[in-house]
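Severity: low
Component: inverse-folding endpoint
Summary: output formatting inconsistent between runs
Steps to reproduce: submit the following structure tokens with default settings.
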């Protein structure tokens, strides 16, 4: 009976393996969803970094920041912009933030002083265009009530004396 059990388990495992069918003709690769890691109300890898120490001083829209990041203890960027946190969040996809190493330090070959190199700028664009990262979130206007449509607040209220039949 003990010999039958391992054989039975082996047959079950083989059956499970055989149940997985891979179509070799199928070239479509399902993209991995973008992780939703939020720091300070912004999503890592979705909301576009704007710290000059991250995107380079010469990048349009870059801002000098004095914040000390709680993720890496470095000053000059917010948590959602942290190269170390980005590398951790996107480790499965083997992405690092352009201009930075997986340990969160700057890659010296990607910087000229405080500006990113043209090749690094292309890396940012590639992550946006090919992988959907750093594209921001669509802004949605606040929903306003229709000024014409009646609401509960606009219904006439009868005085209590009338309702009581007085």
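Observed output (run 2 of 3):
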């Amino acid at each position: 009976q003990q010999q039958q059990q391992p054989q039975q388990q082996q047959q079950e495992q083989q059956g499970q393996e055989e149940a997985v069918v891979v179509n070799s003709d199928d070239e479509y690769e399902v993209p991995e969803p973008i992780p939703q890691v939020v720091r300070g109300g912004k999503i890592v890898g979705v909301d576009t970094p704007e710290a000059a120490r991250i995107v380079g001083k010469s990048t349009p829209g870059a801002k000098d920041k004095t914040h000390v990041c709680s993720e890496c203890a470095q000053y000059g960027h917010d948590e959602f912009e942290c190269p170390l946190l980005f590398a951790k969040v996107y480790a499965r996809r083997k992405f690092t933030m352009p201009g930075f190493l997986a340990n969160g330090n700057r890659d010296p070959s990607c910087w000229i002083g405080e500006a990113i190199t043209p090749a690094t700028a292309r890396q940012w664009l590639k992550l946006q265009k090919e992988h959907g990262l750093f594209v921001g979130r669509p802004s949605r206007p606040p929903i306003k009530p229709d000024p014409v449509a009646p609401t509960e607040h606009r219904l006439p209220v009868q005085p209590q004396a009338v309702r009581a039949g007085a």
